[in-house]
């Protein structure tokens, strides 16, 4: 399945997916990495792997988020993309784009949804005093972080954890979970 990955930053989940796709039986072929930030660190890594990249800064579009996404959508179609993995893409998508890709787009979120939707999940989990935290892969629907859950990974919250320590523990699980979820979704 010709698949695109959307990133905004370092792209460690993207890297984990691309590494997983080196297995001969992996059901996704990563053909395009999209970013709203032309300086995203992950873009150079993707290019060095021989993966096409498409970076389009959202800032010049101002409030016209749909025009930005229509150009991204055109790039996806030009590349014959059939499926999208959002991996640290820090923009809320328009209803228009979500509708174009409904049922063919998934996201990874660093919390056990439906808890801690949105940003700063690790800080908020510590503040709430939960004993368990983790990550969720879910279908993308119009509500932010609200689509149907595909898979979750849990980690313990340890005494004296900082948000950074917790983030590192969750991220290691994300890298395993995302590849497993892609396998699950594209094979069933
Ligand atoms: C990850 O924790 C992901 O779950 C969240 O943003 C972070 C992105 O990290 N949406 P990376 O760019 O994949 O390293």
From TrEMBL:
<keyword id="KW-0658">Purine biosynthesis</keyword>
<keyword id="KW-0808">Transferase</keyword>
<comment type="function">
    <text>Catalyzes the transfer of a formyl group from 10-formyltetrahydrofolate to 5-phospho-ribosyl-glycinamide (GAR), producing 5-phospho-ribosyl-N-formylglycinamide (FGAR) and tetrahydrofolate.</text>
</comment>
<feature type="binding site">
    <location>
        <position position="65"/>
    </location>
    <ligand>
        <name>(6R)-10-formyltetrahydrofolate</name>
    </ligand>
</feature>
<dbReference type="InterPro" id="IPR002376">
    <property type="entry name" value="Formyl_transf_N"/>
</dbReference>
<feature type="domain" description="Formyl transferase N-terminal">
    <location>
        <begin position="2"/>
        <end position="182"/>
    </location>
</feature>
<dbReference type="GO" id="GO:0006189">
    <property type="term" value="P:'de novo' IMP biosynthetic process"/>
</dbReference>
<dbReference type="GO" id="GO:0005829">
    <property type="term" value="C:cytosol"/>
</dbReference>
<feature type="site" description="Raises pKa of active site His">
    <location>
        <position position="145"/>
    </location>
</feature>
<dbReference type="InterPro" id="IPR004607">
    <property type="entry name" value="GART"/>
</dbReference>
<dbReference type="Pfam" id="PF00551">
    <property type="entry name" value="Formyl_trans_N"/>
</dbReference>
<feature type="binding site">
    <location>
        <position position="107"/>
    </location>
    <ligand>
        <name>(6R)-10-formyltetrahydrofolate</name>
    </ligand>
</feature>
<protein>
    <recommendedName>
        <fullName>Phosphoribosylglycinamide formyltransferase</fullName>
        <ecNumber>2.1.2.2</ecNumber>
    </recommendedName>
</protein>
<feature type="active site" description="Proton donor">
    <location>
        <position position="109"/>
    </location>
</feature>
<dbReference type="InterPro" id="IPR036477">
    <property type="entry name" value="Formyl_transf_N_sf"/>
</dbReference>
<dbReference type="GO" id="GO:0004644">
    <property type="term" value="F:phosphoribosylglycinamide formyltransferase activity"/>
</dbReference>
<comment type="similarity">
    <text>Belongs to the GART family.</text>
</comment>
<comment type="pathway">
    <text>Purine metabolism; IMP biosynthesis via de novo pathway; N(2)-formyl-N(1)-(5-phospho-D-ribosyl)glycinamide from N(1)-(5-phospho-D-ribosyl)glycinamide (10-formyl THF route): step 1/1.</text>
</comment>
<feature type="binding site">
    <location>
        <begin position="11"/>
        <end position="13"/>
    </location>
    <ligand>
        <name>N(1)-(5-phospho-beta-D-ribosyl)glycinamide</name>
    </ligand>
</feature>
